[in-house]
Amino acid sequence: MTIPQAPALCIDLHCHSTASDGALAPTSLVHRAVERGVTHLALTDHDTISGLAEAGVAASEQGLVMIPGIELSCLWKSRTIHIVGLDFNPTDERFLAALERQNENRWARARMIAERLSKLKVPDLLERATEASGGDVPGRPHFAQILVQEGVVSNTAQAFKRHLGNGKPGDVKAYWPELEEVVGWINDAGGIAVLAHPRKYQLTATKLRELTGDFRRAGGRAIEVSASGQSSGDLGFLAELCRREGLLASQGSDFHFPGAAWCELGRIMKMPDGLEPVWHHFKTPVEASASA
Fold first, then answer.
1. Pick from 26, 15, 80: nearest CA to 57
2. Cα→Cα distances 101→13, 55, 195, 273, Å
3. Alpha-carbon distance 156 to 265, whole Å?
4. For 103-119, what is each residue's pLDDT tens digit?
5. What is the pTM of this model?
6. Do β-strands 79-86 and 192-195 pair in parallel, antiparallel, or remain unpaired?
7. What is the pairing mode between strands 65-76 and 79-86?
8. Model pLDDT, residue 1
9. Nearest partner of 258 among 43, 22, 40, judged by Cα
10. In angstroms, rounded to a whole number, what is the distance separating the alpha carbons of residues 2 and 81?
């Protein structure tokens, strides 16, 4: 079976808005997706679904099909791993309670980032970063934005290189639940758990196979085979991993902000043959015949 990616059907199941660490408000994100030919979109903000309602209204007006989505942080062997949840029930009470706990973790992290950057003497850093995030929990990109505004650094890349990147003061690790627990939240809410951008964890091939096996045994059902910033070698490796573990195949741009061609909405490499698309297993399946 070939993953359907005909011009009439463009499926992007991983992107972000200002509800987490994206640059565009949910409505603007939907408009941009439509402009780029996306027909089916999952807004997968980090540990929150606060942008779904606004995105849903905009999608309805634009004729875009929205799939409930989220990207949840968790731990696997002390490493932070991201799990995308798709097509879950966004009103499930237990799921919402779990997200509230995640939200508390993210706020604790944001306060710690602000505290560690206090030596930069930027007034009201946390408050301004929160404003930049649209009132939600600020992530490192929002803190970087304020540092640029204050002239502490000349651009976002410099902000990460000096203050927010790996090993820098603003690189604060949060407490996250274990992988098995997070996959359980998604499954219990009627959704599909997807291992997000597997090649971004900088794991060896052996470790990535181990992660994927543990993810499947925990109840995970899909893997992002086609994600942003991948080489053709990555694509082939992940396709084989998907087949080996008997997982469904997902895809997404991981869009965060305009101007980055490698992670633009709808800009997704065609996946190899022989994979079963995750969207065939949605409550309202997107069938291959719709795009043949």
1. 26
2. 24, 23, 21, 40
3. 21
4. 888 899 999 999 999 99
5. 0.84
6. antiparallel
7. antiparallel
8. 32
9. 22
10. 28
174/54 Cα distance (integer angstroms)? 28
Q: Which residues of 54-73 are buried (b: 16+ CB within 10 A; e: fewer)?
A: bbbebbeebebbbbbbbbbb
Number of other CB atoms surrounding residue 149 within 10 Å: 12
Distance of alpha carbon 243 from the chain centroid: 23
Tokens encoding 290: 């719709």
Establish how many alpha carbons lie within 13 A of residue 233's alpha carbon, considering only the half-sphere containing its beta carbon: 2
What is the token pair recorded at 107? 């706020």
What length is written for the chain? 292
Distance CA(162)–CA(21), nearest Å, equals 19
Set out the domains of the chain in order of their start, with CATH numbers: 11-100+175-290 (3.20.20.140), 118-164 (no CATH)
Q: What is the 3-state secondary structure (H, E, C) of 52-118?
A: HHHHHHHHHHHCCEEEEEEEEEEEECCEEEEEEEECCCCCCHHHHHHHHHHHHHHHHHHHHHHHHCH
